[in-house]
């Protein structure tokens, strides 16, 4: 209908949309029959819109636009090189040299749009399960349920201590030596549950009645917690890369014995793994990081 209204000719309209004139005329007649009114006046030389046709034209245009939009959106399920990837990152992702990988992907596939969302790892996993995002860069312990994890980096946890702490000048410390200490962790994310689990298991295995004290913060960033450590509120732990990034705050870092690994990678909801777009993204990023 749009082409006929534009050219006022079945012949030119049929050429524009690459179908036969008879087929186009039949389609218009079927549409008029369905609507119960004429949309065009067929003149000897020109075809013009009727009053009803003029009223219907904006609706027809909107329908065409929505169809084009829906077809483009559906390409993410069929085409590996176009579409939209809603990607989640946690605060501090920049420490892991991951953004250059994403930048290379964006350059290689200019028809794929990357939309970014930032939240803590456990929140990102919930967003994956609710189909609010396509993929996420997060830590392995955050991942659970119907989520597939692709390993990219392994870092080690380090102890963060105030500069005047009794262990501050040591290069390495065993978990057993942390008995009776106060630890600062945010309640959001897997960091405190994972690390404290390792510490408590170690303390339980060595016996004794006293464990550790937890100073649990609510929604604070890693940077805030490190500032609290530097000020003497207690100890904390984080990945070695994160510790190096914020070292100007004034705390001391100590290696742990035995080491506690911190594994990072891409998480994808199982239901999205069959999409060619997602497969392309995962293969590129995982191959780039090897």
Description of the molecule:
- There is one protein chain.
- The protein is of the alpha/beta class and 290 residues long.
- The protein has three domains: 2-77, Orthogonal Bundle (Arc Repressor Mutant, subunit A), CATH 1.10.10; 83-153 and 264-288, Periplasmic binding protein-like II (D-Maltodextrin-Binding Protein, domain 2), CATH 3.40.190; 156-261, Periplasmic binding protein-like II (D-Maltodextrin-Binding Protein, domain 2).
- It is 40% helix and 25% strand.
- It contains ten helices and twelve strands.
- The chain has helices at 2-7, 10-17, 21-35, 51-74, 99-108, 121-129, 191-206, 222-230, 240-245, 276-288; strands spanning 40-42, 47-49, 83-89, 112-118, 135-139, 147-161, 172-174, 182-186, 213-217, 236-239, 252-257, 261-269.
- The longest helix is centred in the N-terminal third of the chain and has 24 residues, at 51-74.
- The two termini are 53 Å apart.
- Keywords: DNA-binding, Transcription, Transcription regulation.
- Residues 1-50 form the HTH lysR-type domain.
- Belongs to the LysR transcriptional regulatory family.
- This is HTH lysR-type domain-containing protein.
